[in-house]
Each structure stands twice: as structure tokens, then as C-alpha cells.
Write a structure and sequence with these properties.
about 325 residues; alpha/beta; seven-stranded parallel β-sheet; two-stranded parallel sheet; 11 helices; globular
């Protein structure tokens, strides 16, 4: 199989071991175990988790001892509230400074004002915020400002569409991309969140199989359209037998995770075919972080085995 002219950097998120939205999931797993198993599975690093050191020198030392790198951290903005904007921007600047101090080059953001992904009593698909025109203006203009600041610091901002937020669907992702400066605002392509988020109206397509085909095509088209702006990738899949259950029963994000909505590439239970998406990225010369991610309950999905499954998938598809 052909290999990439310039290799991607392969990482995996700690969300397979523990969870930032719901810290009790896997909270008994120390970060040292996550780092050890990340290395054992054959990855180069990943983003930080809630139980990682927050003292930059301590985090850097832990990563160096494991011979791993920090890819990014998750940064939730609150730009659409229109209040305390300078405070929100200062918090973003602090995150950039922290990342820079530990050798990362990417900052991945999502707008979390009024988001419901951390609310256990609300549907992550139907109770999430819908932005009005002033909120869209605030979000896109402040993302441009934040992205320019990151750029000046030698960092890359990438926006992450996420279920439970105001930017969840492909249509909303396109609007955000078209309304922001391509020099400063990149896209964090998260295949799992786009597929799950778009399923809110899956019956409009027919049945679950009809939705799968349509979503597959739409995600491939999005990848092709914004290939030059994709600066970070979260490669994950959605379990085909859980997706209709999660939508029809209006699961919260917590319920969806605990029922196993997400899974890693290489799992035959995955609804998406991730190979064409990798081929598009390969053709575009993508050479940044390729992050495996699947928010899972580690008591049901063994994290190390899932990591090895995903790494085997990447090895088969990328040739290394």
C-alpha cells in the first residue's frame, strides 16, 4: 500500500481511558497508565486529560519520560454570551501559553456557551443551543481574533464541531468555515461527532442505512472541500447499533457514552467507512496530528486493546 509523502503524527486521546466531561468514568486509571499504554500501542502522543499534571514542567517531564508529545488540549470558549469577552479571551491566551510551554502547536476549541454535552438530564441532540445571527457574529469574529493571536504565538487554532453545542452539524460547520478567516481558523475534523450530530434528523433520510450512506458522502465532501483548512483530526467511529437507539431515545451525552455510541477505527461495529476519508487527507498531503478518539467506558471497552485495534487500522491504511 502507498505511504504518505510526509507522515502524519499519530496520537490517541485519553478519552478511551477516562473522560473530561464525566470524570468519574475511568477516574481510577492514573495518567501514567494512559501514557504507558499510549506508547505500548504505538502512538506518538495525544491531548491532555483532566487527570494529567496542570503544572507545565511536571507535564513536560512526564511526557519526556514516556517519549511522547502533547498534541493539544481541549479549550471550551464562551464567546457567544457577549459578556465578559475580554475575560474569555484572556482564558484562551492562558491556554495558548500553557500549550506553547509544553511544546504543543495546536489549540482545539469549541464554543461551549449553553452547551448541553455535560448535562446528564438533557438530550445532547435536541436540547443543544441554536445560535442566532448576533451569536454567529460574536463566535466567528472572536474566533478570527483568537486564531490570529494563536498564529502570532506560532500556534494553530482548529475549531471542533461537537454534539450538544451550537456547531454540531455539517451545515453549521460549513457556515463557520465560510465565516472565518482561513489563515487563522482551521478545522478539527471529528468524524464521529459529525456523524452522530447529523443523525438528529436521520429519519428525514429514510432509515438508518439511508442516513449512513448520506452522512458518509457528506463527511467525505466536507473533508474534500476544506482539506487545506483541516489542521487537526479526531478519527473515530459510531456504533451502528447504538446510533438509532441514542437518537430515538434522546440520550444525553452521558447516556450515549455509557451505551457505547463511539468506537475506534478498525472496529467492525463502526457505521462509517473511514478509509475514503483517510485517502482524501492523504491526497491533500495532510501531515499534522491524526488523533484516534472514542469516548468510552473503560470497564466495557478495554482501552489498550482498543488502542491497538486503531493502530493496526492505521498501519493497514497508511502503510506504516
Amino acid at each position: 500500500m502507498d505511504t504518505l509523502p510526509v507522515k502524519m503524527t499519530l496520537g490517541i486521546q485519553p478519552t478511551g481511558w477516562t473522560n473530561d466531561d464525566f470524570p468519574e468514568i475511568g477516574n481510577d486509571i492514573p495518567y501514567q497508565t494512559i501514557l504507558e499504554q499510549t506508547k505500548e500501542a504505538g502512538f506518538d502522543g495525544g491531548s491532555t486529560g483532566h487527570n494529567y499534571p496542570t503544572h507545565a514542567p511536571s507535564l513536560s517531564k512526564a511526557m519526556q519520560l514516556s517519549n511522547l508529545k502533547i498534541a493539544a488540549t481541549w479549550d471550551g470558549t464562551t464567546f457567544t454570551t457577549g459578556i465578559e469577552i475580554e475575560e474569555a479571551f484572556s482564558a484562551f491566551q492562558a491556554q495558548v501559553a500553557f500549550l506553547k510551554s509544553v511544546g504543543a502547536q495546536d489549540v482545539v476549541v469549541a464554543e461551549l456557551a449553553n452547551a448541553v454535552n455535560q448535562v446528564r438530564t438533557k438530550s445532547v441532540l435536541t436540547d443543544r443551543p441554536i445560535f442566532n445571527e448576533p451569536q454567529w457574529y460574536l463566535l466567528t469574529s472572536l474566533l478570527d481574533r483568537a486564531g490570529q493571536y494563536a498564529h502570532e504565538q506560532g500556534m494553530q487554532l482548529s475549531y471542533h464541531p461537537h454534539v450538544g453545542t451550537g456547531v454540531m452539524t455539517i451545515k453549521e460547520t460549513i457556515r463557520l468555515m465560510e465565516s472565518t478567516n482561513p489563515i487563522y481558523v482551521g478545522l478539527c475534523l471529528d468524524t464521529g461527532h459529525l456523524h452522530y450530530g447529523g443523525a438528529v434528523n436521520y429519519k428525514d433520510y429514510g432509515d438508518a442505512q439511508d442516513y449512513r450512506r448520506a452522512s458518509q458522502s457528506e463527511i467525505e465532501d466536507l473533508t474534500e472541500r476544506y482539506a487545506s483548512r483541516i489542521k487537526h483530526v479526531h478519527l473515530k467511529n459510531v456504533r451502528r447499533n447504538v446510533l438509532p437507539l441514542a437518537v430515538d431515545n434522546k440520550f444525553s451525552f452521558y447516556q450515549a457514552i455509557m451505551q457505547g455510541i463511539f468506537t475506534v477505527p478498525g472496529d467492525p461495529d463502526g457505521d462509517l467507512d473511514l478509509r475514503p476519508i483517510l485517502r482524501i487527507l492523504k491526497g491533500a498531503g495532510y501531515n499534522r496530528w491524526m488523533i484516534i478518539e472514542a469516548e468510552q467506558d473503560p470497564t466495557k471497552a478495554n482501552p489498550l486493546q482498543c488502542a491497538k485495534t486503531a493502530r493496526a487500522f492505521l498501519r493497514e491504511e497508511l502503510g506504516w
